[in-house]
Amino acid sequence: MAVHRVPRLDMKSTLLFVCDMQEKFSKTNKFFPEIAQTATRVISAARILDIPIVVTEHYPKGLGSTVPELEIPSSVLRYPKTQFSMCIPEVVPLLNGRKSVILVGVEAHVCILHTTYDLIEKGIDVHVVVDAVTARNLVDRKFAFKQLERVGAVLTTSECVLLGLLKDAAHPKFKEVQKLVMSEAPESGLMDIFSRIYNNMASRMITRLSPKNSVLFVCDMQERFSKTIAYFPAIVQTAKRLVDAARILDIPIVVTEQYPKGLGHTVPELGLADEKKYPKTRFSMCVPELDVPSSNNVILVGIEAHACVLQTTLDLIEKGKTVHVVVDAVSSRSLADR
């Protein structure tokens, strides 16, 4: 089975690009206060994790300076520009030795899009933080996201980025970043934009499943999460159907629990009391002690979509597995993150 490369974030090889979050744009761009609040969250995490921050200002003489609410330290240079891309001659050398760029700012269909074009041409993985990117017109924002995805950018959320950088709750700076994660990002009109994802799912080609080469992964469906995860009772009910089907069809079941000492055990409604539970602190289910059956297909249910489910999927794809994420058995605290 071929091994696939996936665009992971690694804090040692990542830059944060803050694109043109200026005073004049604050009056014209949709959801700008919410976008600035979310961008501040990402900037704060970058400072905690020692990720370099690159800030540009588009024609600052006419459009003003970077808004103060971002709380960017004065020691961080602001690079003035007139071209739409952030990849001006003064910025390009900063990419040396870097594999990934986290991108926030305005406007989605102009400077964000052209910056992404340039970065991808240079072989850089671009993670566009959709809840920290906007435009004056929501139609431009929507179709910019579509174009960004088409050219190869990773569309992600602020919380997904923060947890993707850490990868493990045992990280020494987890507690500091967790405070940022627990302050939920404000709503910025994303649910309407991304409803198309659900509308188009049925038309996508999928790999066939066979009981003989499949395994069911149940990810962190624990007691403490039951009080915070959106639609948790419905998610559990659907996951239980799959657990029952797996037993009927003799499909192996793998169950993990994230930090069970603090987050409790797998909810009893799933009927998994007799299954072995693998405790973990890292976000991926693929912990070293996991005895994974040699199956080509993994059926994946659980929480949270943008954290442990996503990191598990990345690991499995790298191992050459085909991952079937059961969307009606997966959720998060925030529907935007889901």
Automatic annotation (TrEMBL):
Domain (Isochorismatase-like): residue spans on this chain: 14-159, 214-335
InterPro entries registered for this protein in UniProt: Isochorismatase-like_dom, Isochorismatase-like_sf, Isochorismatase_domain
Domain of life: Eukaryota
UniProt record similarity statement: Belongs to the isochorismatase family.
Protein name: Isochorismatase domain-containing protein 1
Lineage of source species: Eukaryota, Metazoa, Ecdysozoa, Nematoda, Chromadorea
